[in-house]
Amino acid sequence: MKHPFFFIKYFAGYIFFLFLLLVQPQAFAQKNIKPDEDSIFNKHADTNIKAYNEMRPYYIAEWKEFIPKQIKVIRKIDERLAIIAIGSKNEFDSLNQNIKISAANNSWKLSSGLEKNLQPLATPFPS
């Protein structure tokens, strides 16, 4: 008869422990997407050019919901990032009001496989 009382006495503790076991993996599984997107945006952005430049036809763009209809997508990086072509300052200015735009450097032209192979070469040797 001692076993059922022991079980009932600590029943709330058992339930709480099981709850923690079930909730903990869910809390760790949540991912903050924003830093990943910012790092991809910054990797392909040319930090030296802040405004429209006629010599740079390709720009990296980031939007919050849907791709604006008036842009010409050259390479879609993910559902919120793409390399786009901009042909005039007026087009740049109108898009810059609604989405985040920066001139793209040439790293977006590399395939993902080539980019992974070049990463070990980019790290300097220890001296």
Textual characterization of the structure:
This protein is α+β, with helices and mostly antiparallel strands. It has a domain at 45-107. 46% of the residues lie in helices and 15% in strands. It has a 4-stranded antiparallel β-sheet, with helices on both faces. A hairpin with a 4-residue loop joins strand 2 and strand 3 (81-85). The longest helix is centred in the first third of the chain and has 19 residues, at 11-29. The radius of gyration is 25 Å and the shape is elongated. The N and C termini lie far apart (73 Å). The model has no long low-confidence stretch (mean pLDDT 77).
What order do the helices and strands come in, and which of them pair?
Blueprint: H1 2-9, H2 11-29, H3 33-44, E1 58-62, E2 72-76, E3 81-85, H4 89-96, E4 100-103, H5 112-122
Quick recap of the structure?
With 127 residues, this protein is an alpha+beta fold.
Category by helix and strand content: alpha+beta
What about the largest sheet?
4 strands, antiparallel
Number of strands: 4
What is the terminal separation in angstroms? 73 Å
Strand order of the largest sheet: 2-3-1-4
- Series of secondary-structure elements, N-terminal to C-terminal: HHHEEEHEH
Overall form: elongated
* Total of DSSP H or I helical runs spanning 4+ residues: 5
Fraction in beta strands: 5-15%
* Poorly predicted parts: none
**If you compute it from the alpha carbons, what radius of gyration comes out, rounded to the nearest whole angstrom?**
25 Å
Task: Name the helicity range.
Answer: 40-55%
How would you state the average pLDDT, rounded? 77
